[in-house]
Amino acid sequence: MTLFTVLFVAVLSRAPAETTAEPWRPLEAECQRREDAADYAAAGDACRRAFEAVPDGPLALNQRSLFAFKAVRLYKRAHKAGSDVAVLCPAVALLQAFSAQLATLPEGERPRDRADVADALQTLEGQLGGACTETPPDDLIEVGGADDRPKSDPLPKSEPPAARPVSVVRPLPQADTQAKRRPLGIAGWTTLGTGLGFGSAAIAMLARAAAMQAQVDGLNAMYPAASGVKIPADDAQRFHDATARGEQANRLAIGLGLPAIGLVLSGVALLAIDAHRERAGRRVALRPSPAGIGFRMEF
Q: Where is the composition biased (Low complexity) (predicted)?
């Protein structure tokens, strides 16, 4: 039996186990298929069920985040395509469920997901305006023993209570405050500020070097070399001091200017990446696969 045949059999034997470990796979495929068919509401339902089917594990929240925000995006597209505003109600329920899961994490973990959930809930709440309602359950009869008779009389028929609007669950204020902090943005502004500080110091050194060079030029003009006039000791000392200080200032300007350029460029790059990530809203999920690690991105 060749090595290729052994590897082929091993991959085939792992396929059922992988399907069992990833029950959301068929739902993900259904979500994509319905999205391609422009059936956005049904695609959102499939992604929502895929969110619910993701088993617990170290990478579960990555996968759930991907499905949750993709489902919300699909529900919004369905509403934009002409569906009633009630199509957004499952999106609210899904975000509430994801918010409850995030609330179980230590404060400071997954700050971006917390912030995006809070923003999405606030936006949907404004669009719905109480359109989502909960239907109260039917009157229940307590089941009796073996004689099949109820232990108590059925509750009298009454008018159903008024529908209640769905309450929107928001993360705790502390978590929301932590979520607003973007590490890349903070690092970018810090790096840019440091670079500008170094640049200001380099400019100051250049100005000092120019002042020392002006003193040297003035002394050269007073005592030209061709005149043969001897320079007094005080002026000679001033000449040597101004020359040394000017050279030192030039070296400091170069030593400060080069890091300043690098820090400014790095700060600008970090801020650009942070702004791009904030606009794109992309999410990444990694999962094990027979060929190694699978990489998925939603944006």
A: 164-173
Phi-psi region for residue 32, left (φ > 0), alpha (ψ -120 to 50) or beta? alpha
Whether residue 111 is found in the same domain as residue 95: yes
Give the DSSP H or E segment for 133. strand 133-134
**End-to-end Cα, the chain, rounded Å:** 45
For the ranges 14-28, 70-84, 178-192, the maximum mean pLDDT occurs at 70-84
The pLDDT of residue 98 is above 60: yes
Any idea what DSSP says for residue 154?
P
Per-residue pLDDT tens over the stretch 63-90: 899 889 999 999 889 988 877 788 888 9
Tell me: do 175 and 29 sit in the same domain: yes
The predicted structure's pLDDT at residue 262: 92
Angle at 273 between CA 179 and CA 95, to 5 degrees: 35
Q: Are residues 108 and 189 in the same domain?
A: no
Position 194 pLDDT exceeds 70: yes
- Give the pLDDT band of residue 285 (cuts 50, 70, 90): low
- Asked if residue 148 is part of any domain, the answer here is no
43 part of a folded domain: yes
What pLDDT is stored for residue 248 in this prediction? 92
Does one domain contain both 175 and 208?
no
Does 283 reside within a domain? no
147 contact partners, CB below 8 Å, separation of at least 6: none
Shared-domain flag, residues 56 and 173? yes
Alpha-carbon distances of 297 from 62, 196, 246, 285, rounded to whole Å: 10, 36, 56, 6
The boundaries of the domain holding residue 224 are 185-278
Q: Residue 3 carries which side chain, given as an amino acid letter?
A: L
249 part of a folded domain: yes
pTM, entire model = 0.43
36 and 80 within one domain: yes
